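[agent] plan:
  1. take the single chain provided in the ticket
  2. run structure prediction with default settings
  3. attach structure tokens to the ticket
  4. add a short note for the reviewer (M.T.)
[agent] executing step 1
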Amino acid sequence: MNNEIKNILITGGAGYLGSTLSAYLLGLGYNVSVADSHWFNKIENGFCIKNPKFKEYYIDLRDTNKLCQLLKNCDAVIHLSGVVGDSACALDENFTFGCNYLNTFTVANLAKSYGVKIFLFASSCSVYGSMAGSSALTENSPTNPLSYYANDKLKSEECVLSLKNESFSPVVFRLSTLFGWSDRMRFDLVVNGLTARAAINEPIKIFGGTQWRPFLHVKDASIAFELGLHSNKKIAGQIFNVGSDKNNFTINQISELIQYELPNTFVLQCENFSDLRDYKVEFSKIESWLGFNTSVTVSDGIKEIINNMRKYKIKDLNRKTFNNEATTKLIIQQHNVQKLLEKKAGCFENIR
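[agent] step 2 finished; step 3 output follows
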């Protein structure tokens, strides 16, 4: 643990990555505060709930009064909050822009004004879009966002990094596609979803299959963020790809790894697909600068998911809490109804 950085605020800390990261930092002795809108649920991990160093707050990040209270005496912010995933973000461009860019702008600027030392922003390797050639992409490679999600992430990176000064150290982590078991499980991620369907004896659909993706276990992502808390000013303003060269796979290769563990898996190849993302990523910078190496392979993650599916007897993968797109759709509907009610209330006020 960094003795100078003790009090950590994690936005989106009850989510898929956030719930794992919160428990990991608590285990290392940090004081962890979670700010989350609870779209999916509160943190249910008993280790977190019973830990005196843990606090969880329900908050809409647009509520700057509450946010400012949480930023007082905060040493570092890890900003995970937002609508995650291309399909979820495509549901409503304006809603996504508000959650992903405007909220990042607000949190980062307020963090700086309240004297927060370190601001770690969770971006995504999806900002690369697709490779022009066969070479793995570095932090200096051209970006080519192909979705609202990736575009808002790239804009947010620029916003966060522009705030750098002697006392405020923003760092961007471009995360690989996450996988692995979490207290707030997702089955709309490539490895998780394909493995889960195979585990309940459903055929798995592969769209295209030759496209490359880098993959990162949620536990390794948590380790990377903790290393970022040790950062000194030399990495302020830097961008890091987070992952491992050995965890670059095509989607077809992922299906083969699943079939190795579950030989009876039926793979349905679908030629018609609209996902143009295709990127292999290089990770030497984070290894040389932060000493980061992954410890969990994709095969390890597949076994973990299979074992937990059996342990918890999960059969229904369509529950909204397992799927960001389904939950986001419901939240947007509620958001639009609220706006309509507010508009009508304003009309009634004018009549009075």
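[agent] step 4 note for reviewer: The two ends are 59 Å apart (CA to CA).
[agent] ticket updated
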